[in-house]
Each structure stands twice: as C-alpha cells, then as structure tokens.
Amino acid sequence: MIMDLTDSHAHVDVSDFDADRDAMLDRARAAGVGTLLAIGNGPEIEKLGAAVPYAEAHDWIYAAAGIHPHEAEHATDAHYAELERLARNPRLIAWGEIGLDYHYDHSPRDKQASVFRHQLEQARAAKRPVIIHCREAWADCLRILEEDWRSSGLGGIFHCFASTLEEARIGMDMGFLISFAGNVTYPKAQNLRDVARDIPMDRLLVETDSPFLAPQSNRGRRNEPAYVAEVARTIGNVRNLPATQIAETTSANFRRFFGLGHSGNRTGAVPGGVSSHF
Ligand SMILES: [Zn+2]
Ligand SMILES: [Zn+2]
Fold first, then answer.
1. Nearest-ligand number for the alpha carbon of 39
2. Separation of CA 46 and ligand 2 centre (Å)
3. pTM of the predicted structure, to 2 decimals
4. Alpha carbon of 161 to ligand 1 centroid (Å)
5. Ligand nearest the Cα atom of residue 99
6. d(CA 102, CA 163)
7. pLDDT tens track, the chain, 278 positions
8. Which of 83, 122, 154, 203 has its CA 20 to 30 A from that of 193?
9. Ligand with the closest atom to the CA of 98
10. CA-to-CA distance for 108 and 127, rounded, in angstroms?
11. What domains are defined for the chain?
12. Relative to the alpha carbon of 8, which ligand is closest?
C-alpha cells in the first residue's frame, strides 16, 4: 500500500549516492516518500550548502545546513558567515544538524559546545528550528538548549532519537519533535521501541539518516530514503496502528511544524512550534 511518508533526515548529497542518485530518489517516491528533509552537513565542513541544490530542484525536498559536532574543531567565522547566507534561502527550513557527540569525541567537547551555542544564536536570528544530533551527551545538550534555545520558541527535532522518555519529554516541553531512525527496528532495541510507543502522536517523526543506519532488513548496507517505510511499520507495530497511519501522522506533524502547505509550498507561517503550533 502506498503511504504518505516523510523522511525527516537524509544525507542525499553524499558520494555514496553518486552512482544512482536519481534512481534512489525515484525509489523514495515509489515507496511513498512525499516529503524529505535533506541535511547538508556534507562529508566535510566546506560543503555546508550541499543539500540546497536538491531542495531547489525538487518541490518535495527541503534543505537544512549546519556544522555537525564532529566538525566543530574546524569551524571558523567564514563557515558561520556561509551558514548565515544559506539561511536566507526559503528552501532551507531548518538549521542542523548541530549538537554534541561524546560517543566519538571527534572534536574537543568545549569546542563542540561553543560551536553548538554559536549556531543556536544564529538559528534564532534566522528564525529556523534546529535539528539536534546528541549522542551520549544529553545532560549538557539539554542544559544548553534550556539556557540558549527554549526562549526562542522555535523548537526543532531530536533526530535519530535513542535515549529515554524522560529526555524526550524535556525536549517536547521545549517544542521539539522526536524523530526515530532505523535503529528502532533492531531486535535488541526494545527499550527504544517502548519510547517510540509512548511519544505523543503529534510529536512523532520518522527518518532514515541515509546513507547510515539502515533498518533491520538492510542492516549493514547502504541506507536510502525508501526504507523509511520500515521505520513507520515498526512504530506502527508497537503502537498497534497501521503503518499508513504512522506515515500520515508523521507527515502531517512535519508539515504543521515547518508551516508547509500540503502541496509542499510554504504557507508563510513562522516555522517552529512552541507558541504557534502546540
Ligand atoms: Zn546525526
Ligand atoms: Zn545525519
């Protein structure tokens, strides 16, 4: 059955897709992906605008840009200026992914924090919700959001959520949506499925994080946006709802949050959630 799916987080610009990118996007459409947020961190910090051309070429694709915590130590004023320029593009609807990653610690933690805070300030000025990447850093991440972001009222998305319901609740209280990725399908991830079962329906999103983190049926191989259907099916199973309903609700949540019309056109509403949508 064809679903109305939204992949809230995919890296379609990366070289993994160079050989078959058009076919990959066609497969996404055939699987029912009606909306996709392309995250343009690029494989390196020099390609912050990597997602924008896809959003300009396809009315069903939107773009985000931001400095990933892995790249924080390379951030310069020139990169911040580039992000500010990119954020003037109406097809760029979110700032990210940004945040903290203490699992890999590719950049020093104090640098990750300062780059995160700087971008929160920029996103606030640009009136763009933020896409949060947080791994094994929830205490610091939530504290920074509390101090530097809550008052913006813009909210955002906790992407590839893999933590507890309590942390999700703190985020939801700040206007965040909670997005689940392929790891929710893994046999050992029952704890995460329990969280996905208990998130209020109007805060739920699904994503692939393509080309990473393929769901169970393609685990270990390249992920692609078409596989977001498997994430929706898994969440439907734990909530005793048809996958089509998970797909429709998560798509409606995404459109409402970003102020997008059903056709994919922006309605002109101010993006973000706390005051205007929740
Ligand atoms: Zn991420
Ligand atoms: Zn990502």
1. 2
2. 16
3. 0.94
4. 9
5. 1
6. 14
7. 678 999 999 999 999 999 999 999 999 999 999 999 999 875 567 789 999 999 999 999 999 999 999 999 999 999 999 999 999 999 999 999 999 999 999 999 999 999 999 999 999 999 999 999 999 999 999 999 999 999 999 999 999 999 999 999 999 999 999 999 999 999 999 999 999 999 999 999 999 999 999 999 999 999 999 999 999 999 999 999 999 999 999 999 999 999 997 654 455 444 554 433 33
8. 154
9. 1
10. 28
11. 5-277 (3.20.20.140)
12. 2
Residue 221 tokens read as 């191989």
Amino acid present at 259: G
Number of CB atoms found within 10 A of residue 212's CB: 17
- Please name the residues in contact with 165: beta carbons below 8 A apart, sequence gap of 6 or more: 194, 195, 198, 199
Q: How far is the CA of 209 from the centre of ligand 2 (A)?
A: 5
pLDDT in tens, 265-276: 455 444 554 433
Ligand 2 centre to CA of 97 (Å) is: 6
How many angstroms separate the CA atoms of 148 and 167, rounded?
17
Task: State the Cα–Cα distance between residues 98 and 112, nearest whole angstrom.
Answer: 9
Q: Which among 164, 194, 83 is positioned nearest to 131, based on CA atoms?
A: 83
Which three-class secondary structure state does DSSP give residue 236? helix
Ligand number nearest CA of 133 is 1
pLDDT in tens, 109-166: 999 999 999 999 999 999 999 999 999 999 999 999 999 999 999 999 999 999 999 9
Pick the closest to residue 66 from 31, 89, 103, 39 (CA basis). Answer: 39
